């Protein structure tokens, strides 16, 4: 079975979201439907996540591009599916959360290695 490339992966976390049409710009209503998030939540997320910055045109109307829709889906997944707080999701998106996770992973691996070496020492006796 072939794995989809990163450019083909559109749904982050939830397989229930509809595919993103091949349009250049999306209104806030369209993004709301594509991502399963109400428009007022999208406006709030714009304030909380600097990565989410739709183009604003006359009358202060928002126009989201494809990368914005993908970002909304990623934020939605972090908050709704993975249980992150706003601050935690912000860290994950900035890469700081990944650095923290990597540090914890290294610590766990070191501990496991020490335990395995102790077991090996006991077995060799």
Short précis:
With 125 residues, the chain is mainly α.
What is the element layout, followed by pairings?
Elements (H helix, E strand, L loop, with lengths): L27 H8 L3 H10 L6 E3 L3 E3 L2 H16 L4 H9 L1 H29 L1
Antiparallel strand pairs: 1-2
Largest sheet: 2 strands, antiparallel
The amount of beta strand, in percent, is: under 5%
Low-confidence spans: pLDDT under 50, at least 5 residues? 1-14
Distance between the termini: 47 Å
Adjacency order of strands in the biggest sheet = 1-2
> Helix-strand pattern, N to C?
HHEEHHH
The residue-averaged pLDDT reads: 82
What is the C-level CATH assignment of the largest domain? Mainly Alpha
Helicity, in percent? Answer: 55-70%
Q: What's the architecture of the largest domain in CATH terms?
A: Orthogonal Bundle
Specify the number of helices. Answer: 5
Number of beta-strand segments: 2
Shape: elongated
Tags for this model:
2 domains, 2 strands, 5 helices, disordered N terminus, elongated, single chain, Multidrug-efflux Transporter Regulator, Chain: A, Domain 2, 125 residues, two-stranded antiparallel ribbon, mainly alpha
Characterization of this structure:
The protein has 125 residues and is mainly alpha-helical. The protein has two domains: 1-94, Multidrug-efflux Transporter Regulator, Chain: A, Domain 2 (Orthogonal Bundle); 95-125. 58% of the residues lie in helices and 5% in strands. It is built from five helices and two strands, in the order H-H-E-E-H-H-H. The protein has helices at 28-35, 39-48, 66-81, 86-94, 96-124, and strands spanning 55-57, 61-63. A two-stranded antiparallel ribbon has the order 1-2. The longest helix has 29 residues, at 96-124.
């Amino acid at each position: 079975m072939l794995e989809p490339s990163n450019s083909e992966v559109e749904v982050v976390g939830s397989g229930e979201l509809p595919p993103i049409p091949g349009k250049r710009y999306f209104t806030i209503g369209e993004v709301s439907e594509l991502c399963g998030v109400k428009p007022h939540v999208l406006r709030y997320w714009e304030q909380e996540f600097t990565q989410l910055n739709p183009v604003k045109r006359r009358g202060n109307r928002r126009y989201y591009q494809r990368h914005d829709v993908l970002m909304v889906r990623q934020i939605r997944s972090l908050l709704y599916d993975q249980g992150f707080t706003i601050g935690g999701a912000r860290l994950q998106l900035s890469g700081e959360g990944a650095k923290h996770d990597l540090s914890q992973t290294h610590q766990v691996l070191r501990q496991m290695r020490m335990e395995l070496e102790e077991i090996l020492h006991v077995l060799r006796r």
